[in-house]
Structures are given as structure tokens and as C-alpha cells.
Amino acid sequence: MSAAHSPSPATPVLDRIRVGSAPDSWGVWFAEDPAQTPWRRFLDEVAEAGYEWIELGPYGYLPTDPGRLREEVARRGLNVSAGTVFTALHRGPAVWDETWEQVSRVAALTRAMGAEHLVVIPSFWRDDRTAELIEEPELTAGQWHHLASGMERLAREVRDTFGLGIAVHPHADTHIDTEAHVARFLDATDPGLVNLCLDTGHYAYCGGDSVKLIETYGERIGYLHLKQVDPDILADVVRDGTPFGPAVGRGVMCEPPRGVPELEPVLAAAQGLGVDLFAIVEQDMYPCPPEQPLPIARRTRAFLRSCGA
């Protein structure tokens, strides 16, 4: 840790921020993949790195039997903050049944683990490995209507059935990505139902200002993902039109405090909202060598402590 990030009497106390990490920071993107860290090793190492909170990651990566999973996380001193689902609700009512089937599985396990949040990621408009165009990057007015009304319906059903709140995650190569798209989505949805998961890395990747978003839409920020972008690699990614998956392989998401945005102002702005927020470290590293994640996780946890979290 550099002197610039050493704890000092002036370091703020971020007592409304609950820090955790996620399988993503161990190179996990899929339920099963031989290139990924085995789930037992992830649980062992995330606890060893000093985190108390985790996300479930892709459904099926961790055990899906609630009793077994409770035992596995409890004996490592861990707790679950959220589950994650991908949706394509802009496609309209025709996808609802399929969407609800997979959401229900994840939401049930999330609730059984005592968590209160479901992170909802929109579907990609291009393949994150091949760059093949799946859909147009811009939605029509009708598709925006389906997206907003579908998310509101999802929020109601998840709340009424499982007692969870949803946090929609703006994400690179999806239809909710840039400042303009995020603002349009928030303005089109009910603030009493739909909150945002602000991912600092994805928002910077797409040109957004996290502090500005917190200051403008603070009442909609229900959850945080902490990550940074390497600005030099990002410039190449934008120039080359590189899809998100290969961009991650090139190291576009980097270890803090080496990238942007600066996390200290983001955390201070989040603390200023006066509500309890999870801030889950989620450094995209798929794929990565098995020995790479733990040292990064330790350093990142130390850095966040130096920020007061």
C-alpha cells in the first residue's frame, strides 16, 4: 500500500458501507467452466482475504441446496448479500415466463441465504466472446417501454413472492450502459420499485461519472459494485470496437487504486446518502490463473480499509 493510501486520522469512517467480494473477482463467469476457480477455493480465499460478504455468482456455481450452502458459508464466517440474474425484458411479455422461471430459482436461494437484494443485469446486444451482433445496440421506443414496464413487474413479483428488492445493473454491451441510457431508464421506472446497482467500473467503461450519478439519483442507488478501469486499455478498446469479453481478457478492469474512477470520492458520496449500502468488489478477471485472485483480493481489501471502508 502506498503512503498516499495509508490510514490516517483524516480518513473518513464509512460506517454505512458494507464491503464484500464476489466470484467474479476470482474469474468466475459461468456455473461450470474448467478455467474457473473451484467454488470451495473461492470461499476459502474470499474469507482469507478479509471479506465477510459475498454474492452467489452464476446460479449453480455455488451449491444450490440452501442447507448445504448455509453450512459452507457459515463455517468460513461469510454471509450472502445478493443473487444475480440476467434478463431480456425489452423483448416484451413473450419472454416473461422464461424470465420468471430462472429468476425464481435465484431469488429463492438468495432469500434462503438471508440476503435482501437481487442484482438484475440486462442481456447483451453483442456476444461477449465473438462480437457477433445479437441485437441492435439502441432500443426502439417500444422496446424501452417493454424494458421499463417489465422491470417494474419483475420488482413487484420479486418483492411480493420473495421479499427481495431488485437493483438493476448498468453493464457494458447492454442497453443500459451510458449516462443517457441510465438516466432514461431511471426516469421511466417507478422509484418505489426499481433501484440501481451502480457498478463503478462498468459506468466508467461507458463514459459515466459515478459521483455525479450518486449526486443526481442518490435515492435510486440501492447497491454498489466496486471496480476500476485501466484508462489506457479502455482507450484501445473503444478505438478498436472490442467487445466486453475480450476487453476483460486484455485487462481493461484493473486492481484499485490503479485505474478510474477514484473510489474514495465514490465511497464518500455513497456514505453521504445516509443509508446502508453493500459495496461489493467485482473485478472482472475471466479467465485468470488460479493463483492470481487472492493476492489482488488482499490488496484491494487493504486499500478499501485505507479509505475508511
UniProtKB/TrEMBL annotation:
Domain named Xylose isomerase-like TIM barrel: residues: 43-306
InterPro entries: IolE/XylAMocC-like (IPR050312), Xyl_isomerase-like_sf (IPR036237), Xyl_isomerase-like_TIM-brl (IPR013022)
Top-level lineage group: Bacteria
Pfam families, alphabetized: AP_endonuc_2
Protein name per the record: TIM barrel protein
Phylogenetic lineage: Bacteria, Bacillati, Actinomycetota, Actinomycetes, Kitasatosporales
